Amino acid sequence: MEFFKAQKAFNFMGWVKPIFTFSFLITIIAFYLIFQKGFVYGIDFAGGTVVQVKYDKPVQIEQVRKHLSDTQFSSAGIQEFGSPEEIVLRLQNSTSDVTKDTALSVSEALKGTGNFEIRRVDIVGPKVGKELQTQGIIALLVSVLGILLYVAFRFEWRFGVAAIISLVHDVVITAGMVSLFEVEFDLTVLAALLTILGFSINDTIVIFDRIRETITDSKESINYNLSALINESVTNTLSRTILTVATVFFVILTLFLFGGEIIHGFSFAMLIGVIFGAYSSIFVASPFLIWLGYDVAKAKAAQAQRLRNTMEKEKMRAQFEQGIV
Question: What is the pTM assigned to this prediction?
Answer without folding.
Answer: 0.80
